[in-house]
Design goal:
Blueprint (H helix, E strand, L loop, with lengths): L8 H5 L7 H33 L5 H11 L8 H10 L6 H25 L3 H9 L4 H9 L4 H16 L3 H6 L8 H9 E2 L2 E2 L1 H22 L14
Helix pairs in contact: 2-5, 2-8, 2-10, 3-5, 5-8, 8-11, 10-11
Length: about 230
């Protein structure tokens, strides 16, 4: 049957069904995504800086090992990973989800940040060291502002991957109050006797908005020059 009247009733109902549990799912995804993105940016930028600019023994071997980690299928690790998380007492906690998200995103993001730091001229780092900058200050104050395109890419990748996750939340977060948006929306809209398509559609559209806002906010960094204003 073709729709007769335009209605936004489902957008209202999605926040009131089952005592407003959708808001809890949404908040869980926001918190997990923010924490994961921050952790990924900090760790991958530090690792990328070290692999690119520091004289680390066997760093080429380390880079190969990092790239090899990207080739391991995640689903093949679910059973041993479940056993490890359970033995650590982290099962059914947000900490377990953050740990897994960060771990499996780092190989790609470290490689991405290393390439971003590789594009910065070595002379810029040497000049800062001669002027008396410490290694950490050089990383934080001099080089990090120049790799914002890489940071933006890492942030979008990490946020998108975390926000859209389903299988990790399904396996490691069984409690209703800990479930993420995608898993919770499925529980709300898909039932034993049918699917509430109106609620599913409304929830799906709402779930797109945060990632869309993030991309709109960060996309301007992609069009800036990587070292714009660094060398006069």
């Amino acid at each position: 049957m073709d729709p007769v009247n335009l209605t936004f009733e489902n957008y209202k109902n999605i926040f009131t069904v089952e005592n407003g549990i959708f808001s809890t799912y949404f908040f869980n995804s926001v918190i997990l995504t923010v924490i994961t993105v921050v952790c990924v940016i900090i760790i991958s930028s530090l690792a990328g800086y070290g692999l690119s600019k520091l004289d680390i023994p066997y760093k080429n071997v380390l880079l190969v090992l990092i790239l090899m980690a990207m080739m391991i299928p995640f689903h093949g690790l679910l059973i041993p990973l479940f056993s490890i998380i359970k033995s650590l007492g982290l099962l059914n906690t947000h900490g377990a989800l953050v740990l897994i998200y960060v771990t499996f995103q780092l190989p790609f993001t470290v490689y991405m940040m290393k390439n971003s730091f590789d594009a910065i001229p070595t002379s810029l780092r040497e000049s800062a060291l001669i002027d008396g900058a410490s290694e950490f200050r050089l990383y934080l104050k001099v080089l990090m502002p120049l790799v914002w395109p890489g940071v933006a890419t890492v942030a979008i990748f990490s946020a998108y991957t975390t926000w859209n996750d389903f299988i990790i939340a399904l396996v490691f977060a069984n409690s209703d109050r800990l479930q993420t948006l995608n898993l919770g929306l499925t529980n709300i809209a898909v039932g034993e006797y049918g699917t509430r398509w109106g609620l599913l559609s409304a929830g799906s559209i709402i779930s797109i908005i945060p990632i869309l806002i993030l991309f709109i906010f960060l996309q301007r960094y992609f069009i800036n020059g990587l070292t714009s204003g660094a060398v006069k």
